[in-house]
Design a protein that fits this description.
about 110 residues; mainly alpha; 3 helices; elongated
């Protein structure tokens, strides 16, 4: 929850009790709950409106999917899931080379360095 742990939350509650007093604290907590509920409803409404406007091919869209890191990770996972295991094995076999003989120099690519 916003990177706030239990110790930080306890400090916030203690400070709130001293600042607002124990009589007014329940009312402030109720108002904060209403605000959070309204913010969640607003975010859900924005997500639903975005889904409606984008069409049925984006019906499973989540707002966190718009994060570039999440988007790229999903694309890579989809490509890896579609990859054929035989193609992967063939590519790995092509990459493997024989070991160098005694005194043999490794191949050198001037453009790669």
């Amino acid at each position: 929850m916003f990177g706030i742990g239990l110790p930080e939350l306890a400090v916030i509650v203690i400070v709130a009790i001293f600042v607002f007093g124990p009589e007014r604290l329940p009312d402030f907590a109720r108002q904060a709950g209403r605000f959070i509920r309204r913010a969640k409803q607003f975010a859900d409404g924005a997500r639903d409106q975005l889904r409606d406007e984008l069409g049925p091919e984006y019906s499973d869209l989540e707002l966190r999917d718009l994060d570039p890191r999440v988007f790229i990770r999903k694309q890579i996972d989809a490509v890896l899931a579609e990859a054929d295991l035989d193609e992967i094995a063939a590519a790995q076999a092509a990459v493997r080379q024989r070991p160098l003989r005694d005194g043999e120099r490794p191949p050198y690519d001037a453009d790669a360095t």
